[in-house]
Amino acid sequence: MTPNPMGNRRGGLRLWVLVLFAGYAAYYWFSNRSVDPLTGETVVIDRSISPEQETALGLQAYQQVLQQERPLPADAEVSRQVTAIAGRLIERIPPVSDALAAEHGLQASHVEKTFDWKVTVLQSDQVNAFCLPGGKMAVYTGLLPVARNADAVAVVMGHEIAHALLRHGAQRMTRGKLEQLGQMAGAASGMDQGTLQTVMSAYGYGSALPYARSQETQADELGLMLAAAACFDPREAVPLWERMDRNAGGNAPPEFASTHPSAGTRIQQLEALMPKALAYRAKFCPEAPAPAG
């Protein structure tokens, strides 16, 4: 059989394309690494993404949500209650951040100094809440019957605030750039669409989804410490997630296919964190009565 020099040449070119893309991706990843002082873990955030840019994107998203949903008046009783909970959590961000950073021998960056906090209650059956980069927050009224009490609402809101403090949005944007590089490398190397989809699907289950679940776990821990330091009972986190699980009615996807830990995993992790959370409550709320039970 006569060798095909053109085929060999194309194969060599494709290999070089993959090598070049891989080299740049490695450079991008290493050059944008840092250690998050609140978790002690290495994170990758594109240095061109500033907190101010995140805030601008968060404000844009917030305004879009307000146009699509039904905000309750700020003077409505439920709005005042939710705003009061948020105020207690926000007040505890600086000392809790310092305490967590000190556990890792680091200093907190206090990204919250750039935030312009605002809390809105949205009339909706959604069992949800969010906090966008820059401090714009919303709680859906559908969450309140499931939460049942201020302690559980504080756990949820603390979790959402934690996402913003940990700059999870910027981390996901950075990871998105790396994913685009991978797709470009696959296309430029001549990989057919079916193979590329298979590779990206495997990447999702093996890397992207576990990464998203780890962010949820980080937010659970920081949010629990914020709630405890703000003098809420952190132990309400466990019955809250039991109720959330029942409310889902078995419709949640299996953990390996989800961006969130399962309710069972979450409860186990929260129970493991409870001694630390109660210690934070005792430290920051010495005059508050001890939680009953």
- Radius of gyration, Cα only, in angstroms? 22 Å
Pattern of helices and strands: HEEHHHEEEHHHHHH
Spans where pLDDT lies below 50 across 5 or more residues: 198-207
Helical segment tally? 10
What is the number of E strands?
5
**Would you tell me the structural class of the helices and strands?**
mainly alpha
Distance between the termini: 82 Å
% residues in beta strands: 5-15%
Mean pLDDT: 84
Shape: globular
Report the sheet with the most strands, covering strand number, pairing sense and barrel closure: 3 strands, mixed
Please give the share of residues in helix. 55-70%
Order of strands across the biggest sheet? 3-5-4
What does this molecule look like?
By secondary structure, the protein is mainly α. The protein has a domain at 49-174 and 208-284. The protein has helices at 5-31, 51-68, 77-91, 93-103, 143-147, 150-165, 168-188, 193-229, 237-248, 263-284, and strands at 33-35, 42-44, 118-122, 129-131, 136-140. The strands form 2 sheets. A 3-stranded mixed sheet has the order 3-5-4, sandwiched between helices. Strand 4 (129-131) and strand 5 form a beta hairpin.
